Request: fold
Amino acid sequence: MTRHHLNILGFIINCGWIAFFFQHQPMMWILLGMAALLFLVVLSIGVVTPRFNYFVRQTTRLKSDRVLLTFDDGPDPKYTPQILSILQKHQIKALFFVIGKKAEEHPAIVQQIIAENHLIGNHTQNHPLFFAGLGQEKVEKEIALCDNTLIAQNIHPGTYFRPPVGYTNPRIARALKKFKKQTIGWSLRSYDTVAKDEQKLLQRLTSKVKSGDIVLLHDNLAITTAILDDFITTAKKNGIKFANAQDIKSILA
Reply:
């Protein structure tokens, strides 16, 4: 039973005992309102917080002393090759969640990701900003199209999936079960999409990263590309071990 089902069950039970003990009393409506508010608060936290595992069980930390770098929203013709070069320099392997439409536009970069033994994940075909608001058919279509894009390039789409923005709901949960996808969340969010200052972004990452983290980054941003080498170098000096060729395919098992 998911936490969403438990939340629904708790709401029904709360409403039941309130109606039983406070029937015909004005207090009943206040308590029912409080029960509904509690349900909505838990629901909201579940939608926006991947590690809460509310609708979908997500991997948000590693059962390992390694750190896994993950990159969303590529491949990007300018920045992804630079990021791959930095990762190659440090002998680090990462997980790239590709947007199917971009993979169609830049197949050579996708092939480079695979050739350099990184992992590929499904990040939907078009990265709809309101993916969590789509109907069941459209949710499934977005996942299937991204898989088919990779298959057309002779790449096994694998099982890894990350929803746009990270939000989930029951429709997404059903689709992931249908396509047998493993949802990968994160334990450390860089906020590189909103960062303006390179040094502040670098400081945030180096001060917060710890063993077992899954780090959320983006390979379509100049700021991420600019600080990546310094981040890895500093983190290594601080004792951080990043995923390498030997363990990249096992640390998410």
Q: What stands out?
A: Residues 3-48 form one domain.
